[in-house]
Amino acid sequence: METVGIKTLKAQLSQYVAKARAGERIIITDRGEEVAELGPLSCARQAVQALAHHGKLQWNGTKPAGLKGVRVRGDAVAETVIEDRR
Q1: Cβ neighbours of residue 64 closer than 8 Å, sequence gap 6 or more
Q2: Which of 13, 19, 30, 84 is packed most tightly, with the most Cβ within 10 A?
Q3: 25-39, pLDDT tens digit by residue?
Q4: Which sequence spans correspond to the domains of the chain?
């Protein structure tokens, strides 16, 4: 895995994006400290893009209509955690 400083990354961004597109992962450092990772899209993201490309998926970036969140049966999660801590 290659490591690159921010200054070098900014100067050669296109080259590092091409490496990420090819499947490489690059660690980005700021004054010698690792702060981020640049890499290819995840398999899940690629699958979503493929579905959208083939017209099998449409998404405008918002939460899907009709979803109200997760429903939990029984005690609330917070209550369970507090009980387990006792």
Answers
A1: none
A2: 19
A3: 999 999 999 999 999
A4: 2-53
